[in-house]
Specification:
Blueprint: H1 3-28, H2 56-84, H3 90-111
Helix pairs in contact: 2-3
């Protein structure tokens, strides 16, 4: 029997019934009571003034442009290495290096 078929059968016949059972037990359980009484007074969030470099007009284009530039530079370097075929072993090192830079850029854009 194929491994993918076996995993699919296990997923279907184990995950499916346990999901339905968990849903049923969750709806039938008693309501949770909070031990602390909270007030209904609304509080206003303080107005935060962002620096100009964190405004959406700046961050949105940069977060879209940086990963695209990294990929295009990597693609250009790989194609020039294949065309020259002198330093074909350098392609893998450069691909690793640029994928690492790409990962760093994406994480930084996600933080912003």
């Amino acid at each position: 029997m194929s491994e993918i078929l076996l995993i699919s059968i296990l997923y279907l016949f184990i995950n499916g019934p346990t999901t339905v059972l968990g849903t049923y037990l969750g709806f039938k359980s008693p309501k949770m009571v909070s031990p602390v009484k909270t007030s209904r007074i609304d509080s206003l969030a303080p107005k935060v003034v962002l620096p100009f470099w964190l405004s959406p007009c700046i961050t949105v284009p940069i977060c879209g442009l940086l990963p695209t530039l990294v990929i295009s530079i990597e693609f250009d370097q790989i194609l020039s290495g294949v065309q020259g075929s002198q330093y074909i072993y350098m392609i893998f090192w450069f691909a690793y290096l640029t994928s690492l830079i790409f990962l760093i850029v994406v994480v930084e854009c996600a933080i912003i």
